[in-house]
Design a protein that fits this description.
The protein contains two helices and three strands. The protein has about 100 residues and is of the alpha+beta class. The radius of gyration is 13 Å and the shape is globular.
Length: about 100
């Protein structure tokens, strides 16, 4: 969650507990005018996919292309990141509980 915290901080977002979701959310407007909702799950790492699925249902997100998952990778140097479309992440089981992209 280090990456999500960093990005949220840079955007000036404030996390708020959401009673409908198992986590905290932050919202802002993208320059295109679209609403962007950030979710920081409160579940165990291997269960975060359940929070993502619940958020998609609650927010009426119907397409995986509308979801971006930020995930810290312990095997990467701090400050580095990788963008991957679809598939499952290597290493731990976090992605196994997330909806298929």
């Amino acid at each position: 969650m280090i990456l999500a915290e960093h990005v949220a901080s840079r955007l000036g977002l404030r996390w708020q507990r959401n009673t409908d979701l198992p986590g905290y959310i932050a919202e802002h407007a993208h320059p295109s005018g679209r609403r962007v909702v950030w979710l920081k799950p409160r579940l165990a790492m291997n269960e975060n996919g359940k929070a993502v699925r619940r958020a998609c249902e609650t927010l009426s997100i119907t397409s995986p292309s509308q979801v971006l998952i930020l995930q810290d990778e312990p095997d990467m140097e701090p400050g580095k990141f990788r963008v991957k479309a679809g598939g499952r992440p290597p290493g731990h089981n976090t992605g196994r509980s997330e909806p298929a992209a």
